[in-house]
Amino acid sequence: MSGSGRDTGGEAILVEGVHKRYGEKKALDGLDLRVARGTVHGVLGPNGAGKTTLVRVLSTLLRPDAGRVEVAGVDVRHSPDEVRRRIGLLGQHAALDEELSGRQNLEMFGRLYHLGARRARSRAEELLVRFGLADTGRKAVSRYSGGMRRRLDLAASLLTEPRVLFLDEPTTGLDPRGRTEVWSAVRSLVGQGTTVLLTTQYLEEADQLADRIAVVDRGRVVADGTADELKSRLGGDRLDVVLRAADRLDEVRALLPGAVVDEDRRLVSAPVADRMAALTETVRALRAAGIEAEDLAVRRPTLDEVFLHLTGDGDPAPSAERTGKGTTEEVAA
Amino acid sequence: MTVWALSDSWTMTRRELAHWARQPGQLAVNLVFPVMLLLMFGHLIGGGRGVEGTYVDFLVPGMLALTMAFGLEATMLSITQDLGKGVIDRFRSMPMADGAVLVGRAAADMLQSAVSLVVMILAGLAIGWRWEGSAAGALGAFGLLLLLRFAMLWIGIHLALVAGRPEMVQAVQILVWPVGFLSNAFATPEAMPGWLGAAVEWNPMSATATAVRELFGNQSATGTSWAAQHAELLAVAWPLVLVAVFFPLAVRKFAALGR
């Protein structure tokens, strides 16, 4: 089920059959994942799917109960310290010393990464400049905006130029501006060969940043592929017909097998196998029936639709809210 | 890794020193609070049930012990805040020496407590307290007080790791204060009802307070129970027992964050 055709030996992250339970609850239930070097892999899933547990296992914060986990070629269970030298972690909340300045934070973490005092200082300076925080001076982190805090957090996880970077819901709780700031920072990293594993509840975020996406539900990967591959798995294209008048929606639904209707938007949407044939046949049928269409389009399914399809009856609300508004109702209908 | 243990611990201690430098107001409040208590009990509430001689000579050593005991809250608060913010997670995801987080915390808290003791002693001198004993005795008293603080440190770390959230500190405060006041810091056990007096005499804080009074050559509680007669022994034994129990518990709990 997990990424096929990627078995090149060039994995930055290799997870096989990993289990982790908290008491009765199985947080990870035989999860498999492979992430190729230098790529961004999105891990998408509803709340409680096991995303954070996975990141905690990968970043040596949690010991898995069973399974094989390698990060940058090193076994997480046997050599956690070796792994720690090669990774950066951005947790769900900015993990910073709020009382200190940005520079003090970076220098402290740099020393703890054993860069040495001088290198810690110069690295802190470089990163402050790179993340647009050079003019923060002595200001305490507690007085930073959410976006600034997150950028400093990201800078702290890049002190050692890690080969693998884990981002656990990096934009949760940020306003749109903060989100854009974080996204552009992540994009600039990837160009430099860092492998990024990014968990998110937001489809838009995965679509924007990730080369491949693993959909996680109930502690396992239920789908893994590029955004396009995932969209294809939902059964290919859909035909959307928007009518001028709502009173003939039912007639159009009858024309298209498997169609769903959104009355508010006067929209009929149906899966189609052959794009061109569906388009021409529908146009002909509409004309024959004398039905006026305002718009007629063949499109790929949205990631929202894929996500809902894959995670079944899971609660899609957090992701649906944030991405394209219109698309969710059709699917829910 | 072990090569880094010292250097990493020092970095963690320096972090606390940087907090002091950045927020001297906060540090001052922490240092002044016990002084305020001292003045309140010395002048406003005063009295000291069952105390013979000058109350100030009785009160100051008791307040020194109380200040050390209340250090538990400070330790707990710092650790729970770091846990809550995910800072401890970041430390744990870094290749730093295993114990450095706790050692750094311990060193910083002990340092602050030593400063706090000096401030309290100066405040005591200002309101008329004097020590009659030898310099060696005074050093011994200082040592016993810091030993009590060291025990409180590990209890605080353990409780913080168990509680996990800063909000839980308040719950612990509700317990710490009565334990602090159910000691002979302010009044002699003889002046209390029998059962209460007995409990008070066995309170580790009372042992330290009594021993410190003796070492400073101050007015001492003249209890006849075994605990009162062997206060100096208990002032050493109690903290050592508490450390023996809570140090391994705290260390194990810290390691268990990864489970």
Automatic annotation (TrEMBL), chain A:
This is ATP-binding cassette domain-containing protein. It is found in: Cell membrane. SMART domains: AAA (SM00382). Residues 13-243 form the ABC transporter domain. The keyword Cell membrane applies. Belongs to the ABC transporter superfamily. Drug exporter-1 (DrugE1) (TC 3.A.1.105) family. InterPro entries: AAA+_ATPase, ABC_transporter-like_ATP-bd, ABC_transporter-like_CS, ABC_transporter_ATP-binding, DrrA, P-loop_NTPase. The lineage of its organism: Bacteria, Bacillati, Actinomycetota, Actinomycetes, Kitasatosporales.
Automatic annotation (TrEMBL), chain B:
Coiled coil: none annotated. InterPro entries: ABC2_TM, ABC2_TM_bact-type, ABC_2_transport, Nod_factor_ABC_transporter. Residues 25-257 form the ABC transmembrane type-2 domain. It is a multi-pass membrane protein. The chain crosses the membrane at residues 27-46, 58-79, 100-129, 135-161, 233-251. It is found in: Cell membrane; Membrane. The keyword Coiled coil does not apply. Its main location: membrane. Keywords: Antibiotic resistance, Cell membrane, Membrane, Transmembrane, Transmembrane helix, Transport. It comes from the Bacteria. PROSITE patterns: ABC_TM2 (PS51012). Belongs to the ABC-2 integral membrane protein family. This is Transport permease protein. It comes from Streptomyces physcomitrii.
